[in-house]
Fold this sequence. Notes:
The chain has 221 residues and is mainly alpha-helical. It has a single domain (6-220), classed as Orthogonal Bundle (MetI-like fold). Helix content is 81%, strand content 0%. The protein is built from 8 helices and no strands. The protein has helices spanning 13-47, 50-65, 68-83, 89-114, 118-126, 131-161, 173-184, 187-220. Helix 1 packs antiparallel against helix 6 (131-161), helix 1 (13-47) runs antiparallel to helix 7 (173-184) and helix 7 packs antiparallel against helix 8 (187-220). The longest helix is centred in the first third of the chain and has 35 residues, at 13-47. It is flat. The N and C termini lie far apart (51 Å).
Amino acid sequence: MGNFRFDMMVGYWPDLVGGAWLTLKIGAASAGMGLVLGLALALMRYSRIRWLDWPAYAYIEFFRTTPPLVQIVWFYYGLPAMTGRDLDAATSAAVALGLNIAAFFAEIFRAGIAGIDRTQWQAARVLGLGMTDTLRFVILPQALRNVLPPTGTTIIYLVKSTALASAIGVPDLLRVGQLIYVENYRVVESLTIVAIAYFVLTYPLALAFLAIERWFSRSRA
Length: 221
């Protein structure tokens, strides 16, 4: 393969696997946090109650319009300076990315809820369902079908964004790749393997969400 020496990468597989595993853990923690917080923010926005709507709106706009890298670095360096309590690099990255992605999930969920016909709410009231039961049994199950495609895309984007954690020294997949090419000077080979590894991590997610979408389509038929 010309001057490429991918054989020199064989000995680094344990390090790459460890970096990939940490990438998945950060991504999973951030996604879980983002989904829960995003749904709460979406409900706050949809409530139209001013003291709930405006804080949620401010949160969403702030985290959507500031770079996630800045947020990661701030949580790692700024939060300890303010609170006197240190967070390890991986936790700082997971929290920052979770807070960031929650803003995007909030808008996805809000659009999904808003897309449900008002007659569904009216029918639930006729049946005597309260707000909580209406959301739980009527609105959210229908909204879930609407938000699956953008949710899947956003989670894939989140897993790729974990690479930003390397900026604060987290030994994730990208950071391991950087350390490898610093050691063996094979930049192209190292980053090529890293890119393939990200594809291996994210493509199954795309397939899983596609399968869920098809399952929902069949169940509605």
